């Protein structure tokens, strides 16, 4: 899952590249960048440390974009962005952020992203592999209303885990009073940052956008705290899988609708049938119909018997002898916190009820599986 078809000469470096190498990071290609997959502690310890203390992740490969309204009214930028997503962007209060989805005319997902309202502009974080296409998409549709300002000169780090708030509060006491999905400008160690109380591990934590020139100083100081351990992409993937969170290009893509992906919770009442701003986004006909009638397939959690992980791409069958594939695994691996294999995948909706028995193929043999309720590990967000 982590390897990408890039040659070393094609890979970009994140601002913290030298620090990763000096910390013993094992560097691998990912989304066009050379990124640390793990450090000396290893994936298992990094995963468990994040669940019990605080893990520090570099996610600077992600795209950061400002949407600055030409009118000076952030509401106009929000209304413009609503033309591209099924979420209620006008309903995001200043100082808050929301998960959103760019959709296409068929209702498929072009990318998932975070949208924050900074009071005078919107701040977007998009996926690394999609950021060039996302920026072009925004320019194609929103330049009449917004300045689209990419921020390649900023790094992005995530501090995740139950001790994350205590660590950051040493530099800004008001951090402790932030709630899940609060977001806005903050000053840490004299550095102007954008801080949100969010992340992609299922744990309480923060994402911090910091000028690239100041990133190493900030991260080095955080790593000096005994509670903080550097964590690579390997544990980031196992943490988000246990949390039941989608990885773009694997669990969601242009052929997947939000309803099939079990992401209908992200579509607020104002954009649904009968809402104040019903529809008016790409793929609205399909998405609104599936909200009312259901989708033909659903993303589900999957648990297998035994200890062997079931990986992405594994086929799913309704019974032990059938040759008719009914679905496939989209993410899979070993879950350190649940001490067993966990996976996600798509099955026909009638088979999506938790506890439904299925089979997969592993090393030429049929392996029993069950659909499972997501997430595998309960989130600890500070609401």
TrEMBL record:
Substrate binds at residue 207. One of its GO terms (molecular function) is transaminase activity. GO terms for biological process: glycine catabolic process; methylation. Coiled coil: none annotated. The keyword Repeat does not apply. GO terms for cellular component: glycine cleavage complex. The keyword Transferase applies. Its EC number is 2.1.2.10. Keywords: Aminotransferase, Transferase. Pfam families: GCV_T, GCV_T_C. Residues 16-269 form the GCVT N-terminal domain. It comes from the Bacteria. InterPro entries: GcvT, GcvT/YgfZ/DmdA, GcvT/YgfZ_C, GcvT_C, GCVT_N, TrmE/GcvT-like. Belongs to the GcvT family. This is aminomethyltransferase. It comes from Afipia felis.
């Amino acid at each position: 899952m982590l390897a990408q078809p890039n040659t070393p000469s094609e890979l970009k470096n994140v601002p913290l590249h030298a620090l990763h190498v000096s910390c013993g990071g094992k560097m691998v290609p990912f989304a066009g960048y050379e990124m640390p997959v793990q450090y000396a502690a290893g994936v298992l310890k990094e995963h468990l440390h994040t669940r019990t203390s605080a893990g520090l992740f570099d996610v600077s490969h992600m795209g950061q974009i400002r949407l600055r309204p030409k009118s000076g009214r952030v509401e106009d930028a929000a209304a413009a962005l609503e033309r591209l997503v099924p979420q209620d962007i006008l309903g995001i209060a200043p100082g808050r952020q929301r998960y959103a989805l760019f959709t296409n005319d068929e209702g498929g997902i072009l990318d998932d992203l975070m949208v924050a309202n900074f009071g005078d502009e919107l701040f977007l974080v998009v996926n690394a592999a999609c950021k060039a296409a996302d920026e072009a998409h925004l320019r194609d549709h929103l330049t009449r209303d917004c300045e689209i300002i990419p921020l390649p000169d900023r790094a992005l780090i995530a501090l995740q885990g139950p001790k994350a708030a205590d660590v950051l509060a040493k530099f800004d006491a008001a951090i402790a009073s932030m709630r899940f999905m609060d977001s806005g400008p903050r000053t840490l160690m004299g550095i102007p940052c954008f801080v949100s109380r969010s992340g992609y591990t299922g744990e309480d934590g923060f994402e911090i956008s910091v000028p690239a020139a100041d990133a190493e100083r900030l991260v080095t100081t955080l790593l000096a705290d005994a509670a903080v351990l550097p964590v690579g992409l390997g544990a980031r993937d196992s943490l988000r899988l246990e949390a039941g969170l989608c990885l773009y290009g694997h669990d969601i893509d242009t052929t997947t609708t939000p309803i099939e992906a079990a992401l209908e919770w992200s579509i607020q009442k104002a954009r649904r049938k009968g809402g104040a701003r019903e529809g008016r986004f790409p793929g609205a006909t399909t998405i609104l119909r599936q909200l009312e009638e259901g989708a033909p397939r659903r993303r589900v959690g999957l648990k297998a018997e035994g200890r062997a992980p079931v990986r992405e791409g594994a086929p799913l069958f309704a019974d032990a002898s059938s040759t008719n594939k009914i679905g496939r695994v989209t993410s899979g691996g070993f879950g350190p916190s649940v001490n067993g294999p966990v996976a996600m995948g798509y099955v026909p909706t009638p088979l999506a009820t938790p506890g439904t028995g299925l089979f997969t193929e592993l090393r030429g043999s049929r392996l029993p599986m069950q659909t499972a309720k997501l997430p595998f590990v309960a989130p600890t967000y500070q609401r």
